[in-house]
Specification:
Blueprint (H helix, E strand, L loop, with lengths): L9 E10 L4 E8 L5 E8 L3 E8 L2 E5 L2 E3 L4 E3 L4 E3 L6 H13 L6 E6 L5 E2 L8 E9 L10 E6 L2 H10 L3 H17 L1
Parallel strand pairs: 4-11
Antiparallel strand pairs: 1-2, 2-3, 4-5, 4-8, 5-12, 6-7, 9-11, 10-11
Amino acid sequence: MNQTVTSDWKTLDRFVEINSHWVKLIAEHLETTEGQTVEYWRVERADSVVILTIQADKLLFPLPMYRPGVASATLDFPGGRLLAGSTPAAAVPAIIKKELGVTESAIASIEPLNAIGWAINSSFSNQKLYGFVAQLHPTATVNPELIGAAYPTNPEGIHDLLKKLTCLQCRALLLEWQNQDNLRC
């Protein structure tokens, strides 16, 4: 039996709000639809854009970057936060340029993987994830000093990549792309 939620919870008070350039931390007392008061902590963050960048049937990755949340460098697709007033699609060329040193003229096509942003953690954050596939011209120059890894787009390459890729956002977009690609065949 599916239960339908008929109304929103009520915010009773906000007892903590910490603002920074990267994140806003909020603690509130909320009243549930059943009348129960709960303490709830959440964050508000800018949305994310992650790009599967492909050249000559290879997925290109920037150099691994240190991630404080997991205290290690990780292999991730090019990506970044969406600046206020920018659209997800408009952010793609600047992210690719920053992370792979590729000019906009080197990009043959940009296709969205998800038209509506996916909630990264809807219970804790308002942040959404937008994924794209950027095809680079086969002869476009990519700075080799900025390439951290390249994996073939064939099933074996994706299988090997999934053994190395620990970022859930990156994995979700890769699997979505693989699924969409298989549906087109």
